[in-house]
Design a protein that fits this description.
Largest sheet: 3 strands, antiparallel
Low-confidence stretches: none
Structural class: mainly alpha
Order of helices and strands: EEHHHEHHH
Helix content: 55-70%
Shape: globular
Number of strands: 3
Radius of gyration: 19 Å
Strand content: 5-15%
Distance between the termini: 19 Å
Mean pLDDT: 85
Number of helices: 6
């Protein structure tokens, strides 16, 4: 079980993590929460339906990581062959973002919080680590959060395709990006084994 998820009887997944791994995942999840930003203020309105029907943003985020986490639904308008088509793509993407981004942010926030809370609830096995056991629902949230963490790190590392990933394996140890590369690759391994665990 060390370093990879395994299925639990009756559903869910388990993985053995040492204290350093727990600290790294928790720290990255907290940073992701800070990047996504706070949810709507609880006292913003006396109307409980106001949040449900609140309009979201219409412009893509300026931060490249947030742009990767919340991409335009209709592609990059700059790649459109004609100005009219590019303008239509912008309009469609803005409308889609307006009605979906708040919910997407809420979902990503909830997944990151599940990661943090499940790690906080761990009790050390006495040898500097613990076994994390997740229900099927928690496993799904973890899967979403691991994906978001990899997208965020990949964006910071300018990873756009498989060829970029192959180059990461050849980075010299003195490269300042090396720790983030190692985290990116390790999270990828965790994500892959969790996907396998959840497959029927």
């Amino acid at each position: 079980m060390p370093g990879h998820f395994e299925p639990l009887p009756g559903g869910g997944a388990a993985v053995a993590l040492d204290d350093v791994e727990i600290s790294i995942i928790r720290s990255l999840a907290v940073q992701l929460l800070e990047l996504i930003g706070p949810g709507p203020a609880e006292d913003a309105s006396d109307d409980p339906l106001a949040e449900l029907f609140a309009d979201g943003p219409t412009e893509p985020p300026s931060d490249p990581v947030l742009r990767r986490l919340f991409p335009d639904a209709y592609g990059d308008p700059e790649g459109a062959p004609q100005a009219k088509e590019a303008e239509e793509q912008r309009e469609y993407s803005a409308e889609f973002r307006r009605y979906t981004e708040n919910d997407l942010r809420t979902g990503k926030r909830e997944s990151a919080l599940v990661v943090i809370r499940s790690l906080d609830a761990l009790h050390s096995a006495g040898d500097g680590g613990a076994v994390l056991k997740l229900s099927t629902g928690e496993s799904q949230k973890w899967l979403g959060a691991l994906n978001d963490l990899r997208l965020a790190i990949g964006s910071r590392l300018d990873i756009t395709d498989e060829e970029d990933t192959d180059l990461l394996y050849r980075l010299p140890d003195e490269d300042p990006r090396k720790p983030m590369v190692m985290a990116y690759l390790w999270l990828g391994g965790l994500q892959e084994t969790l996907v396998t665990t959840l497959m029927p």
